[in-house]
Write a structure and sequence with these properties.
By secondary structure, the protein is an alpha/beta fold. The protein has two domains: about 220 residues, Metallo-beta-lactamase, Chain A (4-Layer Sandwich); about 70 residues, no CATH class. It is built from eleven helices and 13 strands. It has an eight-stranded mixed β-sheet. Strand 11 and strand 12 form a beta hairpin. Helix 5 runs antiparallel to helix 6 and helix 9 crosses helix 11. The longest helix has 23 residues. The chain is globular and about 60 Å long.
Length: about 350
Amino acid sequence: MRTLIRIPKTFRHSYLLFLSLTGFHLASYSQETINTDTHRLEKVADGVYFATGAGDIYTMSNALIIERDNDVVIVDSHITPAAGRALLSSIESVTDKPVTTLINSHFHYDHSNGTPAFGNNIEIIGHEVTYEKLTEDPENEHTFQSSLTRFDNTVSRLQAALDNSSDNDDRDQLQRELAYWQRHVAAQSEIVFTPPTQTLRDKMTLYRGGREIQLHYFGRAHTGGDLAIYLPAEKIVFTGDMMLGGISYMGDGYVAEWADTLQGLKGLDIELVLPGHGPGFTDIERISHVQAYYTDLTEEIRRLKDLGYSANEAAARADLRQHEEALGVNQLGANEEAVQRMYDIWDGNIQ
């Protein structure tokens, strides 16, 4: 029997907040849904499945399963080898073909740290920046280190709540949550940072097994090396964290360039967007809404910086509430980490 785990608010990334802010819901694009012990696999086209975590293994990010005549291509490997193995097991519910190719949309830990689960003989494709990030000093990347702190804090918080609870039902739920996060913390010990075996700079197209898969780099956005994985025959694009249903995490981003990058994405003939987090969507106009937010955020922070405000002050004063209807931005202020990074880029501290 599976237990529904409540993910603590203290752990959730800021790029998931749009789900509650906008009431964003799952579009009716699925042809069929297969539920496994760890995943929900939504069939979005013949031989194409959108994989989201739905069990007692923490996956964090979404993945894409693309079946070809004789093999399978996976996009994004989840957050740990344990999560990657769970994905491989779930794939067996839809095909017995071998997984031969893994595409990582970008270098972030929650999308690439499951790679070792796929074995030593798999072809791993990623952008040049992803290769650089996963070979230089990935263990000390601030996004990864901050995640470890959040995991530990979550375990500590749940343990304290369990110790202080006398209600049996509450204690049972807390014990299940604590065990869930303890398993995830333990899974970190298996991580081996694994870079791509093949890289691209601008575009790569895979023609094999009756399937055309295009990999596009449109510019810097969520990271310096985000890829869009596009199936032209199906008009489906997997965007990683470059384009979610709302505002993405910006702590490693290039906000001033992001809108231009998304303009490249809009050049594709798209009917369905499958993001790295959250549900897919068919409302392609949502891309324009997100573009407008990044453009307005850039202009607002430049204005405040020119007035002499510090990054923290600018983050507190930034007014983006004109995006309330489209993106649920209903409070004054902007993400401090994102604003500090914008200052650092403009001041030449980050390239």
